[in-house]
Amino acid sequence: METHVVNLEAACAALSDLWSPRVVARVGDQYVKVARVQGELVWHAHEHEDELFLVLKGRLRIQLEDGEVSLGPGELFVVPAGVRHNPVAEEECWLALVEPVATRHTGDVVTERTRSIEEQLG
After folding, report:
1. In angstroms, rounded to a whole number, what is the distance separating the alpha carbons of residues 71 and 61?
2. Element housing 94 (H / E)
């Protein structure tokens, strides 16, 4: 079995495109991804999958239909399955994401920012 260490900040630094997550590890049926984000993504939901957001650098707001959550470095939040949400970063933010391998990038919505799992596996 192959083993390797992943530095999440270095993996984020290597990304060139915003809102284009990259898979850096797999834990069972979950992918660990990194992304650089700025602006807002799109309102969407993942019908059957929870999604964990962990801020590595910067600040992230996750808009929810009944409010919003603000996260800073080292803080995480889990969006439960089926909950509509919209990630927003006023300035560039670096994230780690943990979600089931079946999770579609923008859930029930497709936009020009939507990335396939093949693109995320890069």
Report:
1. 6
2. strand 85-100
